[in-house]
Amino acid sequence: MTRIPVAVYAEDPVLRTGVTHQLRPRPEVEVLDQGDRERAAVALVVVDVVDEPAAALLRRLRRSSGTRTGVVVGRFDQDALQTTIDCGVAAVVRRAEADQDRLVATAVALHKGEAVLPGDLLRRLMDHVGRLQRSVLDPNGPTLSTLTTREADMLRLISEGCDTAEIAVRMSFSERTVKNVLHEVTTRLQLRNRAHAVGYVMRHGLI
Fold first, then answer.
1. What are phi and psi of 110, to 5 degrees?
2. What is the CATH number of domain 136-204?
3. Domains 4-119 and 136-204 agree in fold
4. Which GO biological process annotations does it have (predicted)?
5. What is the distance between the alpha carbons of residues 156 and 10, in angstroms, rounded to a whole number?
6. Alpha-carbon torsion (98, 77, 80, 151), positive or negative
7. 146-160 pLDDT, tens per residue?
8. Looking at residue 145, what is its pLDDT?
9. Which of 9, 50, 117, 177 has a CB 3.0–4.6 Å from the CB of 80, allowing a cystine?
10. Does the model's pTM come out above 0.70?
11. How do the domains of the chain map onto residue ranges?
């Protein structure tokens, strides 16, 4: 079996040593020394967060044809998802889940041209792609700014089956306030009733 040449990148020597130590004993991969990284088929970038220095490294690796990149990360938020997409990252592994088998499986998947994402990040990616598609198909369509946070929260509760009284209790508003807010939403968006409003905002990915 041909071993997959893997380069490990980490500013923190503890992180670099930890990942390298897990990978070296495995016959599926060959961990490259720093001076031999140009042979890498797979690059694993190990970071606490995807900040600007990490993004700069990811962009540089993207320009290296033939190398597919994965990120092993401590914390990962929506901004990081956008950055990794822009930088062509094909795999994300949370550091808390990065045991030896997971790291090797990620390297093998990357080498095969596959993508690796945790389930919750995959859902967020699909939502992101859906929003991009909607903005291309209908650039004048509704966006997240169409609703206030309070309006979105109320409509989300309605979609979960809550009535006016339950929404008032859960959001610490009076029932009158809830009715007024929902009336404002349906009037502003020219919708017939609450069910129409919920369907509208769910169809456009606003809740």
1. -60, -40
2. 1.10.10.10
3. no
4. regulation of DNA-templated transcription
5. 41
6. positive
7. 678 888 889 889 888
8. 47
9. 50
10. no
11. 4-119, 136-204
pLDDT at 35 over 60: yes
Please state which CATH number belongs to domain 4-119. Answer: 3.40.50.2300
DSSP 189: T
Contacts of residue 18, Cβ cutoff 8 Å, sequence gap at least 6: 46
Q: Are 46 and 15 within 8 A, CB to CB?
A: yes
SS3 label, residue 156? helix
Buried b (16+ CB within 10 A) or exposed e, 45-73: bbbeebeeebbebbeebbeeeebbbbbbb
Amino acid identity, position 197: A
CB 42 within 8 A of CB 72: no
End-to-end Cα distance, the chain: 48
Quote the pLDDT of residue 127. Answer: 58
